[in-house]
Specification:
The chain is mainly α and about 280 residues long. It has 10 helices and 2 strands; from the N terminus they run ααααααααββαα. The longest helix is centred in the C-terminal third of the chain and has 27 residues.
C-alpha cells in the first residue's frame, strides 16, 4: 500500500474527527463519500466499494465516539440514562441493518445514502437559522419507546455508515433537550451504533467474494486504523471548540458540503445501476 494513500486517510480522519466532535453529527456522512472515491481510485471491486466504505466508516466511529464522549462527559453534558436505553436498541438495529445492506447491490446503497444525506443536509440548512426556545420543556418518551427509537436510528445508521447524530440530535432537541446535551448524548450513542455495525458488517461480509487483502468482512482495516488514529486526536478538540463557539452558522457551510457529497454518491449510484445508459 502506498504511503500517500495512508497519509490521505489520516488527513481524512483528522477532518472528520474534528467535525464529529464539533457538531455531534457528520463524521460518517463525510467518510463514506470520500472513502468511496478513494476505494474506487484504488480499483477495489465495484460491487464492494460502497459496502466497504459504509462498514469502515461506521467502525471508525467506535474510536471517534469514545474520544469525543470523554470531552463531553467532563463537562457533564452527556445524559447517560438516555444514551443507555437508546443504545440498547441501536446495537440490535445496526446489526440487522448490516445484514440487510449485505443483500443490497452497491448502487442501491449509494442511492439511499445520497437521498437520505441530501435530505438531512437540507433540513440542517433550514434549521441552522433557528434557535431552540428557552422555555422548551423536556418530554422524552418512556424507556421502551427510547429502545425502539434507538433501534430505528441504528438501522438507518447502518445503511449510511454514520453514528446516528443526524437523527439523534434532532429527535432529542424536538423532545426538549438542550442542544449541548443532545450533541453530547448523541456522541455517546455513536459507540453502540458502531459496535453493532462492526459485528453486523463482519458477519455479512464473510461470504463476499473479491474483498481486498487486510479486510475483515466488509471492514477495510488499513483505512479503519489510519482514520481512527487521527480522528481520536481531533474529536476532543472539536468537542472543546463546540463549548466555546456558536456552531449554528457552521452548520450552514457543513450542510452545503454534505449536499455536494450527496450529489457525488447519487452519481455513483446511478453509474453503478447502469441507468446512465437510459
Amino acid at each position: 500500500m502506498a504511503w500517500q494513500f495512508l497519509l490521505e486517510l489520516m488527513v481524512l480522519g483528522s477532518f472528520t474527527g474534528f467535525m464529529a466532535g464539533l457538531l455531534g453529527i457528520g463524521g460518517g456522512m463525510l467518510l463514506v463519500p470520500f472513502l468511496t472515491f478513494m476505494f474506487t481510485r484504488e480499483h477495489f471491486g465495484a460491487d464492494l466499494i460502497v459496502h466497504m466504505a459504509i462498514a469502515t466508516s461506521l467502525t471508525t466511529i467506535l474510536f471517534t465516539s469514545a474520544s469525543s464522549v470523554r470531552a463531553h462527559h467532563k463537562r457533564g453534558a452527556v445524559r447517560w440514562p438516555i444514551a443507555l436505553w437508546m443504545g440498547m436498541g441501536a446495537v440490535l438495529g445496526t446489526f440487522i441493518g448490516a445484514q440487510v445492506a449485505g443483500l443490497l447491490k452497491s448502487g442501491w446503497l449509494a442511492l439511499f445514502f445520497a437521498v437520505f444525506v441530501g435530505l438531512s443536509a437540507l433540513r440542517m440548512l433550514v434549521a441552522s437559522g433557528r434557535t431552540q426556545a428557552a422555555d422548551t420543556r423536556e418530554t422524552l418518551p418512556a424507556k421502551p419507546a427510547l429502545i425502539g427509537v434507538g433501534g430505528l436510528i441504528g438501522f438507518v445508521s447502518s445503511l449510511v455508515g454514520a453514528g446516528g447524530g443526524f437523527l439523534t440530535v434532532p429527535f432529542l432537541g424536538w423532545r426538549g433537550m438542550h442542544m449541548r446535551n443532545a450533541v453530547a448524548t448523541s456522541a455517546a450513542m455513536g459507540f453502540p451504533i458502531a459496535a453493532g455495525g462492526l459485528l453486523g458488517y463482519v458477519v455479512s461480509g464473510l461470504q463476499a467474494n473479491g474483498l481486498p487483502p487486510d479486510s475483515l468482512g466488509f471492514v477495510y482495516l488499513p483505512a479503519l486504523f489510519a482514520c481512527a488514529a487521527t480522528s481520536v486526536l481531533m474529536a476532543p478538540i472539536g468537542a472543546r471548540v463546540a463549548h466555546r463557539i456558536h456552531v449554528q452558522s457552521l452548520k450552514r457551510v457543513f450542510s452545503l458540503l454534505l449536499l455536494g457529497l450527496a450529489s457525488y454518491m447519487l452519481w455513483k449510484g446511478v453509474h453503478a445501476m447502469g441507468w446512465r445508459q437510459i
